[in-house]
């Protein structure tokens, strides 16, 4: 089945030097090239010539290069037979300039227009017909290939392409250039000019596991694709005038195994399908072999684990409502209050402000502990200093008891699920869980 060759193009300017003087002066050709270069904001201009050109043609190429360089353009002359089309300018895509001499040269150039790094412009003599020149030349759908041809006092700029190598040549007039008015460019964007695929039939591979599509079999290798991505594809088919032949659904999206891709990506790389209708993650492994559409959704990967056993409290649970630092602060506060009670008791006894009872260190610790537990005392000290320590101890005890009781009841009433790990590395080190991943692209992230 025929298929579309997806390749974004360069601008090649093909001008028959033998006809420039009769058809278009060199100075006018330079102005057309300059106008097109500014329109596309190309980073540089590259003039392609053949090794069979005459000395006169080569001199005229040098003249053209000199005039373009005089306009502060980065310009070079290259032999198209040995030229690498992956050439890059310092900024933006290059503008290639080639002068037409025969159909064989044009066919060889068109066979190499699979690069997305440049654009093309072809100068054609007035006497030549576009249909005849491009009869055996395939210009891909996503290739911006311009043909400049003189028509009276103007130079017409026509873009040419084919939906497929078996489809007729498509021609759109995109601009006119004249000495008086300069370049007049169409206001219709590129994708609106190429929004009709003339009923082309895409071979599409699909997956039965893709969450963005729902595949229904009608028998006899006939399938209906619905779901979010299925609706998006159907809308594109209606707007762009194409149809789809769905291939047998695949299970996997595709990973590379021993240098070969499987799943839907394998179908694409083996040229068995033109497009894959599924939600693919744009991984660095796939970018060299696939062309992705713009991002339409954000993917989130979730790890599900078996619910662990419930956490049952033990004797250490009674210390869990408060952190270790807080328990340490409570202990230090109790010791300080005990020391304060013992010191104030001794001083009060010495100066006759206290009764016959004196609080030793052990007595003070037990009194402060009792106040923390909201327990009363068998006697009340007479001195205000001892009473102040007592009051402080009871206030601290009331606040501590309220906070601890609420936290303990909540801690015991709510059943918590405690995970034995927090990261993937801890999951591997734990060893109590078996890790399972569906075969596919996501598995490669964990290898």
UniProtKB/TrEMBL annotation:
InterPro entries: Glu/Gly-bd (IPR019594), Insect_Ionotropic_Sensory_Rcpt (IPR052192), Iontro_rcpt_C (IPR001320), IR75A_N (IPR057074)
Domain called Ionotropic glutamate receptor C-terminal: residue spans: 324-429
Single GO MF annotation: ligand-gated monoatomic ion channel activity
GO biological processes: detection of stimulus involved in sensory perception
Keywords, in A-Z order: Cell membrane, Glycoprotein, Ion channel, Ion transport, Ligand-gated ion channel, Membrane, Receptor, Signal, Transmembrane, Transmembrane helix, Transport
Membrane-spanning parts: 326-349, 388-414
GO cellular component: plasma membrane
All residue ranges annotated as the Ionotropic glutamate receptor L-glutamate and glycine-binding domain in the record: 219-307
PANTHER family linked: IONOTROPIC RECEPTOR 20A-RELATED (PTHR42643), IONOTROPIC RECEPTOR 60A (PTHR42643:SF24)
UniProt family annotation: Belongs to the glutamate-gated ion channel (TC 1.A.10.1) family.
Protein name per UniProt: Ionotropic glutamate receptor L-glutamate and glycine-binding domain-containing protein
């Amino acid at each position: 089945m025929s298929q579309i060759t997806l390749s974004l193009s360069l601008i090649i300017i093909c001008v028959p030097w033998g006809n420039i003087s009769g058809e278009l002066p060199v100075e006018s050709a330079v102005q057309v090239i300059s106008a097109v270069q500014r329109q596309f904001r190309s980073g540089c201009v590259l003039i392609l010539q053949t090794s069979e050109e005459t000395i006169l043609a080569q001199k005229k190429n040098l003249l053209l290069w000199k005039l373009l360089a005089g306009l502060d353009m980065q310009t070079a002359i290259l032999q198209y037979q040995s030229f690498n089309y992956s050439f890059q300018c310092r900024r933006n895509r290059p503008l290639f300039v080639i002068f037409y001499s025969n159909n064989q040269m044009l066919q060889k150039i068109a066979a190499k227009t699979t690069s997305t790094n440049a654009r093309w412009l072809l100068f054609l003599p007035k006497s030549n017909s576009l249909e005849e020149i491009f009869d055996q030349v395939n210009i891909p759908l996503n290739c911006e290939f311009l043909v400049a041809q003189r028509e009276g006092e103007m130079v017409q700029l026509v873009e040419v392409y084919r939906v497929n190598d078996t489809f007729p040549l498509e021609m759109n007039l995109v601009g006119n250039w004249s000495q008086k008015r300069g370049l007049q460019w169409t206001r219709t964007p590129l994708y609106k000019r190429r929004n009709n695929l003339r009923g082309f039939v895409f071979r599409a591979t699909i997956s039965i596991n893709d969450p963005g599509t729902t595949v229904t079999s009608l028998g006899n290798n006939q399938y209906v694709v619905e779901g979010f991505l299925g609706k998006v594809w159907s809308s594109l088919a209606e707007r762009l005038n194409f149809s789809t032949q769905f291939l047998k659904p695949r299970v996997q999206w595709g990973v590379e195994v021993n240098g070969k891709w499987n799943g839907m990506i394998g179908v694409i790389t083996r040229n068995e399908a033109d497009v894959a209708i599924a939600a693919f993650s744009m991984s660095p492994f796939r970018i060299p072999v696939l062309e992705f559409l713009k991002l339409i959704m954000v993917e989130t990967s979730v790890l599900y684990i078996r619910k662990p056993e419930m956490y049952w409290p033990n004797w250490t649970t009674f210390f869990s409502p408060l952190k270790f630092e807080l328990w340490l602060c409570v202990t230090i506060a109790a010791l300080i209050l005990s020391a304060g009670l013992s010191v104030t008791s001794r001083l009060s006894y010495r100066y006759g402000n206290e009764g016959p009872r004196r609080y030793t260190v052990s007595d003070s610790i037990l009194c402060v502990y009792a106040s923390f537990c909201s327990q009363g005392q068998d006697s009340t000290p007479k001195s205000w200093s001892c009473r102040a320590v007592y009051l402080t101890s009871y206030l601290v005890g009331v606040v501590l008891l309220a906070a601890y009781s609420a936290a303990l009841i909540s801690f015991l009433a709510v059943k918590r699920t405690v995970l034995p790990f927090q990261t993937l590395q801890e999951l591997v080190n734990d060893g109590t869980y078996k890790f399972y991943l569906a075969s596919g692209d996501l598995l490669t992230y964990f290898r």
